[in-house]
């Protein structure tokens, strides 16, 4: 259950980053709500996950999910670059996160 909480934490981290992007593009109550709500839920689920998963592993996986998720969202919805080298490094982050899960 703690790994599922960590997955949710990473996903809500992405929601918070989307909120930051929306605040920068068009500051509105809804944008701030998405940003703050995403980060609050992210920290809530991260704290739940850290009851069973060591801090270093939980933080690395959480940031990895947030990094990959935000980058993919940026490429798909915000026209950020999709070059091969960028995709290669995203793959490295995914492999690192999977490796941390496997050794846990």
**Helical run tally:** 4
How many DSSP E strands? 0
Main β sheet profile: none
Uncertain spans, ≥5 residues at pLDDT below 50? none
Can you give the helix content as a percent range? over 70%
Question: What's the end-to-end separation, in Å?
Answer: 14 Å
Question: Outline, from the CA principal axes?
Answer: flat
Mean pLDDT: 95
Number of domains: 1
* Helix and strand element order: HHHH
The radius of gyration over CA amounts to 14 Å
Strand % is: under 5%
Structural class: mainly alpha
Quickly list its features.
mainly alpha; 104 residues; flat
Describe it.
With 104 residues, the chain is an all-alpha fold. It has one domain. Helix content is 85%, strand content 0%. It has four helices and no strands. Helix 1 runs antiparallel to helix 2. The longest helix is centred in the first third of the chain and has 24 residues. It is flat, with a radius of gyration of 14 Å. The model has no long low-confidence stretch (mean pLDDT 95).
List the helices and strands and how they pair.
Blueprint: H1 2-25, H2 29-49, H3 55-77, H4 84-103
How is this structure best summarized?
This protein has helices spanning 2-25, 29-49, 55-77, 84-103.
């Amino acid at each position: 259950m703690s790994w599922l909480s960590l997955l949710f934490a990473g996903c809500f981290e992405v929601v918070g980053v989307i909120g930051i992007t929306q605040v920068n593009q068009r500051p509105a109550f809804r944008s701030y709500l998405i940003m703050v709500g995403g980060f609050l839920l992210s920290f809530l689920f991260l704290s739940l996950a850290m009851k069973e998963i060591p801090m270093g592993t939980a933080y690395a996986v959480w940031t990895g999910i947030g990094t990959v998720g935000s980058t993919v969202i940026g490429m798909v919805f915000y026209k950020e670059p999709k070059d091969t080298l960028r995709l290669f490094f995203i793959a490295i982050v995914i492999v690192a996160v999977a490796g941390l899960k496997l050794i846990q």
